[in-house]
Design a protein that fits this description.
With about 260 residues, the protein is α+β, with helices and mostly antiparallel strands. The chain has a single domain, classed as endopeptidase domain like (from Nostoc punctiforme) (endopeptidase fold (from Nostoc punctiforme), Alpha-Beta Complex), CATH 3.90.1720.10. The chain has eight helices and eight strands. It has a six-stranded antiparallel sheet. It has a two-stranded antiparallel ribbon with strand order 1-2. β4 and β5 form a beta hairpin. α4 packs across α7. The N and C termini lie far apart (about 60 Å).
Length: about 260
């Protein structure tokens, strides 16, 4: 009796934790080889969990780099999205990246990103050929100097929290999609699509190259959403195909918080 009670308590506790976290879940139906399986969104990203450290020459043009650093801004983003990443960067090839930051869209050497960030992890969109990568690079470079989408970031802050209602455990995928789409249209309708925040910029580059990563509006997607589009995870926003893990360019778990840089 006591064992049964403890088991029931453990199930209730696990359910409560899922409910509070609002993590996306997926129920895999049984097959002849496996039984019914509940998969829960994962934020595990350390190299020790099946990953590896790589050098820059392992990257390919079009790779997506997700990063984090021990600053107030990064901590706030990671806390709000329940994620270990806070920034998204597009690798252009030849040791160059493009990104949208507070001062606007810029291109700079990859080495600077690796030096500054505490963690840099790379993912690859399958099927990107040389022509597609060239289109991405051309569009990204044409956007250098475009202003940062500050309004989009401000609107995303409440959206990231409110959308947890659409990700309650065991909610059917179709229901979750319609819930999130409706909420985004209401809450993010005033956000601009001619200015960019980091993940919006990366997704728009792929869209402009004719290789969309998702059918969702880029303004809805955070760096955390890109992370959960990886193989083996449960995405909050569906991807056209899962992102493949390439490796960690750097992994130095940051302290909880530090002062922002200039």
């Amino acid at each position: 009796m006591r064992i049964a009670f403890r088991a029931a308590a453990a199930i209730v506790a696990a359910g409560a934790a899922l409910l509070l976290a609002g993590c996306a879940t997926r129920l895999d139906l049984p097959t002849k080889d496996t039984g019914l399986r509940l998969r829960v969104q994962s934020s595990v990203i350390a190299p020790g969990n099946g990953g590896e450290l790589i050098a820059a020459d392992a990257l390919a043009p079009g790779d997506i780099l997700l990063t984090s650093i021990a600053t107030v801004n990064s901590f706030g983003i990671r806390l709000g999205t329940f994620s270990p990443v806070s920034h998204a960067v597009l690798y252009l090839g030849d040791g160059q990246i493009a990104e949208a930051v507070g001062t606007g869209v810029r291109a700079r050497p990859l080495a600077e990103v690796v030096d500054e960030e505490q963690m840099v992890v790379a993912f690859r969109v399958p099927g990107v050929d040389d022509a597609g990568a060239a289109r991405m690079r051309e569009w990204a470079m044409s956007q250098v100097g475009v202003r940062y989408n500050t309004v989009g970031v401000l609107l995303n802050a409440p959206f990231v929290l409110n959308r947890r209602l659409c990700e309650l455990p065991l909610m059917p995928t179709a229901v979750s999609h319609y819930c999130m789409s409706g909420m985004a249209m209401v809450q993010l309708g005033a956000s601009r699509d001619d200015q960019f925040f980091c993940s919006q910029f990366v997704l728009e580059a792929y869209r402009q190259a004719g290789l969309p990563i998702t059918s969702a509006d880029p303004r809805w997607v955070s760096p955390a959403d890109l992370l959960h589009m990886r193989e083996g995870d449960v995405p909050s926003i569906a991807a056209t195909q899962p992102l493949r893990y390439v490796g960690h360019l750097k992994y130095n778990p940051p302290p909880l918080l530090a002062a922002d840089g200039p």
